[in-house]
Design brief:
By secondary structure, the protein is an all-alpha fold. It has a domain at 25-120. The chain is 47% helix and 0% strand. The protein is built from 7 helices and no strands. The chain has helices at 25-28, 43-57, 62-71, 86-100, 104-121, 134-138, 149-158. The longest helix has 18 residues, at 104-121. The protein is elongated. The N and C termini lie far apart (104 Å). Bound molecules: iron/sulfur cluster. Residues 24-26, 55-56, 59, 61-62, 65, 81-82 line the site of iron/sulfur cluster (SF4).
């Protein structure tokens, strides 16, 4: 247990908490996200945890939040983070370790850096609206005015419709 003299654990700098200007549900209503391991006994708790999970599922930084929570077990020993309980997170950390080895945080951080570099190097996406064709812009003018009687007569003659 932490005491007043125990220094607060440092966050792992390799996976920073994602930035967002969105107002986060866990900041406006932190009580909803309180969760101790095994705290699912009462219906009230289960409902509250489900509400916290639902809020996380709609959060724009949920993926980054989950990575941060997994990389910082000492900062997230309890509570709901990115819709996970401490039990869920322990399982996910075990799977990441099996897949990427003991330094899985370094592997995930390196993959994030590579992805960010590739996204920066990528040319901007083309305009989704295709450019107007030159024929349309330089020659064709949509008809707007009613035909004059003279134009109507000429058209009838051209089409051999004259009575
Ligand atoms: S996903 Fe993370 S940042 Fe978003 S509401 Fe849940 S705990 Fe907060």
């Amino acid at each position: 247990m932490r005491t007043a003299t125990t220094p607060a654990p440092e966050a792992d700098p390799r996976i920073p908490f994602p930035h967002t200007n969105t107002v986060l549900a866990c900041r406006t209503n932190p009580a909803l996200f309180v969760h101790e391991h095994g705290q699912t006994s009462s219906k009230e708790d289960r409902d509250r945890i489900e509400r916290a999970r639902t809020a996380c599922r709609g959060c724009p930084i949920a993926a980054g939040c989950l990575k941060w929570a997994l990389a910082n077990p000492k900062l997230t020993p309890t509570g709901i983070w990115a819709a996970t309980t401490s039990w869920d997170r322990a399982g996910l950390r075990r799977r990441l370790q099996i897949r990427h080895g003991l330094d899985w945080v370094g592997v995930v951080a390196a993959a994030d850096r590579d992805r960010a570099r590739r996204n920066q190097a990528r040319p901007p996406a083309p305009d989704p609206v295709p450019a107007a064709s030159p024929m349309w812009t330089s020659h064709y003018q949509p008809w707007r005015e009613p035909l004059t009687p003279g134009q109507q007569q000429r058209n009838r003659e051209l089409l051999h419709l004259q009575a």
